[in-house]
Amino acid sequence: xxxxDEFVYRYLSEKxxxxxxxxxxxxxxxxxxxxxxxxxxxxxxxxxxGSEVDxxxxxxxxxxxxxxxxxxxxxxxxxxxxxWKDISLLSENISGEEFSFVRKPILAIGKINTVKxxxxxxxxxxxxxxxxxxxxxxxxxxxxxxxxxxTEQTDLLLNKARERIRLRKHVERALKERDITLFxxxxxxxxxxxxxxxxxxRIPKPDRSGYVSAGLFIPYLERENLxxxxxxxxxxxxxxxxxxxxxxxxxxxxxxxxxSLSYASxxxxxxxxxxxxxxxxxxxxxxxxxxAIVTNKQILEYLQEKKFTIAFDDFGSGYTNFETVGELAxxxxxxxxxxxxxxxxxxxxSEIYRSIVESVSLFAQKIDMEIVYEFISSEKIFNExxxxxxxxxxxxxxxxxxxxxxxxxxxxxxxxKKVKTS
Length: 422
Known about the structure:
The structure is a single chain. By secondary structure, this protein is an alpha/beta fold. It contains 17 helices and 14 strands. The protein is globular, with a radius of gyration of 25 Å.
């Protein structure tokens, strides 16, 4: 059986791949902190190959090295093997967790059109590299090597890249100018009386004809490490609108990214928001994952004296641990569990998911915490939740529901108009 290096060599040596560029993504499965010393070593290594015209572009961040080679360069295949071995050797010679990159790497190869790539602006090339990286990673099954031909998709990739560049510039401008719109998504009890509202943030489209899909701008924020800045702007905007929010609800749920708890500006805005809510008589519920709480205990212990509530968000997915949540429940602020919406949605078609819903519900009742069922999107799901609540005699004030069946998120301004005209 071929080993990885033999496979790479054979693939790149195939006759149909001349006159092409190969992009190689070497990725570590976990984020690492890379010092300037390590960056310098990697830079010097690639600089040497760049002078030999093998290497056309390379990008380096906390998780990956993305390298674009010229398949036409003299003795390219031999040089490619040497580059791979040099990178591996570099990682072996550096001890500690500082550079764990290529010990267990993902190696992916994408083939793209040389001629078209040369005419592009650097940021367009960089965005295409990111698009291919995401696609290769999503399709890789072995997590070691994956090969895909993109030569027929170059125009499509370029169009997507330019769309993402426009989106990036628009989002950056929106954050700088604090141009976001607050949306309200109500939360109800089993009798369909309002118990509060989750406050969502949306970015208006450039022509103001609607709003940029959260599915587009949120991945960008995460990719560019702008989540802390985004949360800072959102928290500040919520604080500026507390009087308006008071007109529609006296209990608000605000979601923040785990990384924002280590972002000083966002924490500063959070403290101001907590104080502002207390002054005006609004109960603030901070939605955050259990993993984020565990990894940010110091700042949350500092905030313990503040009057606000913690909700364990997306419970049942990712890092959820019943024992950990049980331990964290001893903090006076921790009072709410928000059950992950995907689990709620799947409960109708799977006994396993229904059992999870029941188990989490019983767990919440046992530790005397409110549970919010997300993604209530149909009468059948609503009725199933009601049945579970009745079967186990849950306290009515500990059951809350949220989903499009009950209410679709609407701009705060529209909700204020409804209140004023009713």
